[in-house]
Amino acid sequence: MKELWLIDDGRIWDAVKENIINAIELGFTGVAVRGEFVDRAKKLGNIEVEVAEITKIKSAEDQERVAEMSKSGERIFLDFEDWKVIPLENIIAMKGDGKIIAIVRDADEAETVLTTLEAGADGIAIFPMEREEMMEFSGVIEGRKNVELLAAKIVEIRKLGMGDRVCIDTITLMEVGEGMLVGNKAEFMFLIGSESEESEYVSSRPFRVNAGSVNAYIKAGGRTKYLSELKSGEEVEIVRFDGRTRKSFVGRVKIEKRPMVLIRARADGQEGTVILQNAETIKLVNPAGRHVSVSELKKGDEVLVYIGERARHFGIAVEESIIEG
Fold first, then answer.
1. Nearest Cα residue to 310 out of 192, 224, 190
2. Helices (H), the chain
3. Within this chain, do residues 109 and 156 fall inside the same structural domain, yes or no?
4. Are 278 and 295 in contact (CB under 8 A)?
5. Quick one: pLDDT at residue 145?
6. Same-domain pairing of 154 and 78
7. Do 124 and 186 fall within a single domain?
8. Among candidate residues 92, 127, 142, the one where a domain is terminated
9. Contacts of residue 87, Cβ cutoff 8 Å, sequence gap at least 6
10. Are residues 204 and 279 located together in one domain of the fold?
11. Residue that terminates a domain, selected from 105, 124, 142
12. How far apart are CA 8 and CA 28, in angstroms?
């Protein structure tokens, strides 16, 4: 995974400390600080700490010098005085085993740095800024992208009897309108809502998605997995009703026998199904971002779905003829 660093060369410890705490809480890889602050920074949390040393790139000679430096296997923080893509391309092409971390000023610059020559730099670094701005760079590193969700009409609701369903407890608190994409076909998935709403009988569990039957696919970034394969520590993708995504991880998975119901929907000329536990706390998400319980769902109701491009083989999109029903 690409690295994300905060470089804080400040002289006032209290201000540096606040920035480091933000970096830790936002999942930064590390912080680079003045030498006298290294030991204090290490005590604040589990984060890498280095001395803030920046190499400026102004000329072709600088590029060659950095390429030679990178053979040591160390991490090098680069600041391009007159930002251009070509110098970074040259350094990436020539570098040794060291890690190239490029300083960036905005999210667009970060995207460019991380994709230059396809492989990109080993990471990005930023100077101190407001916490909300720092979060944007966390999103870039996580590969947080929007997905396009469509409104699909329910065409069938059918009780199936008992089956094994998968309940995913994440390490993240979700809100109403957020959940995970699950379906019986990789190219047609339903947005299954988190248990973030209180009910008459059960307290909210906003970290949980009761995702569906063991055979179903779940979308996790550019891949899919079977629900039955999920284990603690694995990455999952949380999706909001407006298509925004964020990364989380599985805390635990519970597979239990429960009465199940099949939901079939149609959108954009395609049809897909998902099999869910037949209980009022299991909900899909409608285009307005509201949760709709499977116990109240009716034919003609609209719910949000994701329509992918192709079927999958071991979770990866493939160009071949595969028909899934």
1. 224
2. 13-25, 38-42, 60-69, 85-94, 107-115, 131-142
3. no
4. yes
5. 64
6. no
7. no
8. 142
9. 57, 62, 63, 80
10. yes
11. 142
12. 13
Q: Give the single-character DSSP code of 140.
A: H
**What single DSSP character describes residue 148?**
-
Q: What is the span of the domain harbouring residue 195?
A: 149-317
Q: Smallest Cα–Cα separation from 310: which of 185, 180, 150?
A: 185
**pTM recorded for the entire structure:** 0.62
DSSP 23-44: HHHTT-SEEEE-GGGHHHHHTT
Tokens 């102004």, located at residue: 58
Which tokens go with 65? 């010098």
The number of angstroms, rounded, from the C-alpha of 125 to the middle of its chain's C-alpha atoms is 19
Query: What CATH number did the domain enclosing 13 receive?
Result: 3.20.20.70
* 136 and 39 fall within a common domain: yes
The tokens 């298509």 sit on which residue? 243
8-state DSSP, 195: B
| Average pLDDT per 10 consecutive residues for the chain, totaling 325 residues | 92 97 94 96 95 87 86 88 74 86 88 76 93 87 78 97 97 95 95 90 90 94 88 93 89 97 95 96 96 95 87 45 53
CA dihedral for 299, 207, 212, 158, sign (positive or negative): negative
Q: Are residues 163 and 187 in the same domain?
A: yes
